[in-house]
Write a structure and sequence with these properties.
There is one protein chain. By secondary structure, this protein is of the alpha/beta class. The protein folds into two domains: about 190 residues, Spore Coat Polysaccharide Biosynthesis Protein SpsA, Chain A; about 80 residues, no CATH class. Helices cover about 40% and strands about 20% of the residues. Strands 1, 2, 3, 4, 5, 6, 7, 8, 9 and 10 form a ten-stranded mixed β-sheet that branches. Helix 6 packs across helix 9.
């Protein structure tokens, strides 16, 4: 069984990031930068490829790597991941053990808990219940299962998309579940995560909840309003808005996504309405 890492990166000039991430298997690094080129290397442990592209957006990077992948099993990776020794054997063994698994979610240790708290580590193999989501860096999957289901990352979501700042990995999961793919958690650590401050997270403000509404509409079109009630409770210690306003912005995001409008589109519409109202009031006077 072959294993391949799909690494999303930005602004790289060479392949040294592969060593930094301690990758010792075949690897496709999609490097978003100011040039378009592809570089190949044959190494002792497998083939590595750096695809440099002027396209932008994390989901576009993931999709480009998916299209170029050729291994039996693929692992999603970001530039702040460092794999443990033998990770490729851990992943291979897990898929051999869980022969019916299409997706396996592994443990990843968070090394900067001030920015990203350590998630609860899995202690046993367990089928993932419907609606449960995990971030991309935990995920390994059978390439053919993903291709057969026609799955890809929604380019409207994720860092650098220009539309909605987050949720691309959760939407990927929701579509996998709807496609009937089987997903498990597995009690083995495959990597350490050295988180830095997010490039998109500005706090729990209006845009955050608008984007969450768009995510809920995309991922759970029939359960969106039910799931929206979860956010004021989950973020109660960090809310910048009142719980009622939090829900209002989520619902605006739901409606906005249906209309193809981002938060910036909504804000522009609001500004235009305000300007028109002020102009009307001045004319009345």
């Amino acid at each position: 069984m072959s294993v391949e890492v799909l690494l999303s990166a930005m602004g790289q000039t060479d392949m040294t990031l592969i060593e930094k991430c301690n990758i010792h298997s075949s690897c496709i690094m999609v490097n978003q930068c100011d040039r378009n080129e592809t570089v190949f290397e044959d190494r002792d442990y497998g083939n590595v490829r750096m695809i440099s592209t002027t396209e932008r957006g994390l989901s576009r990077s993931r999709n480009m790597a998916l299209k170029s992948a050729s291994a039996d099993v693929c692992i999603l990776c970001d530039d702040d991941i460092v794999y443990v020794e033998g990770y490729e054997h851990i992943v291979e063994s897990a898929f051999n053990e869980l022969s019916d698994a299409d997706i396996i979610v592994f443990n990843v240790n968070s090394k900067n808990t001030d920015i990203r708290p350590q998630e609860v580590l899995f202690k046993r193999v367990k089928r993932i219940p419907k609606y449960k989501m995990y971030s991309s860096v935990h995920i390994a999957f059978k390439r053919k299962s993903i291709e057969k289901a026609g799955l890809s990352f929604d380019t409207r979501f994720g860092a650098g998309s220009g539309c909605y700042a987050m949720g691309e990995d959760s939407i990927f999961f929701s579509r996998a579940y709807r496609s009937g793919l089987k997903a498990y958690v597995y009690p083995a650590v495959i990597a350490d995560l050295y988180s830095e401050k997010s490039t998109w997270q500005r706090g729990y403000d209006e845009k955050f909840y608008y984007d969450e509404g768009a995510f809920l509409q995309a991922a759970f079109p029939y359960m969106k309003y039910f799931f929206s009630l979860y956010y004021p409770v989950r973020h109660r210690k960090h809310l910048k808005l009142s719980p009622v306003n939090c829900l209002k912005w989520i619902w605006r995001g739901i409606d906005g996504f249906k209309e193809g409008k981002t938060y910036n589109d909504f804000a522009a519409d609001q500004k235009n309405r305000t300007n028109q109202k002020e102009l009307y009031e001045r004319k009345r006077k």
